[in-house]
Please model this.
Amino acid sequence: KRGTEGALRCAFKQRYFVNQQYWRHPTESAPGGPIFFYTGNEANVELYVNATGLIWENCAAFHCLIVFAEHRYWGKSLLGGRAHADPANPAFSADLSFLTHEQALADYATLLHAVKLEMNAEDSPVISFGGSYGGMLSYWFRQKYPGSVDGAVAASAPVLAFQGQRHTYDSETFWAVVTRDATPAAGSVEECAPGVRAAWKALSAAGATPSGRRALQQQLNLCVEPSADDMALVVDLIWFAIDTMAMGDFPYGSNYLTNGGPILAPFPMRTGCSHFKGLAAHKSTPGELIVALGQMAGVFNNATKDQQCYTLPTDDEDDAMWDYL
Model:
């Protein structure tokens, strides 16, 4: 809507979560306890409320006020056409021009100011928290709004992973960590990492021929026989599952990496790697390796335990927004 001065003003409703269970309320003689503020990332705010243990585990000792913010365009913090988003509707077109890091940070500064006024906590110090992209936001929040944020905890935050940095980042480091999760050093069977490497080669060879692709439908339990053009999606189906299990290779059951869905068992990479046990990469047949690769990916792809077969991935609305961001 247009303000009285004629400038274009945009407004939306932003969700946030507040918990006062441990907070030391301000008094006339002393300020309130600190505020632990989570800079939400690319999912519903509930996901981070339920998965960010560091805040909950330390809040009582600091008598803190907990605030989790939801990122614009995700969950129910919707803007414009995003509120009526329907990926199945060909007429759907979301305006992503307001989806930027800078505007998300401005949202958090505005929200934090409003919460402090509402809670009479203007003098409370603020520590921002975040993980992954949320960790990058936490780090940037402290940089861009130093008058609002006294410190930041940025977990798994690749803030230097951009082209043009003075110290060039190594884009293979992520995959080196994923690979380590498939080795005995991380508790997986010794056949796993070499078996996966050999399975990728076998998969590529099979995808190059019609007979190989027919076999892949059964070996990988695909719902349809993949075409030559589908092979990139077949690869996506598998690598996404493996790299997600590595990111969520927690020693406890968690549904954080399933976006609040089914719970992955503790150490899902170990479970996935177990399908390569006894399969020596240089002695096993290509078909055996491909089957094991599909079963490994199935630990994530069939976390619900009700998938009769696998459909090839397509970009949904959240994927499109994340790619844009």
Confidence is low (pLDDT under 50) at residues 81-93. The longest strand covers residues 126-131.
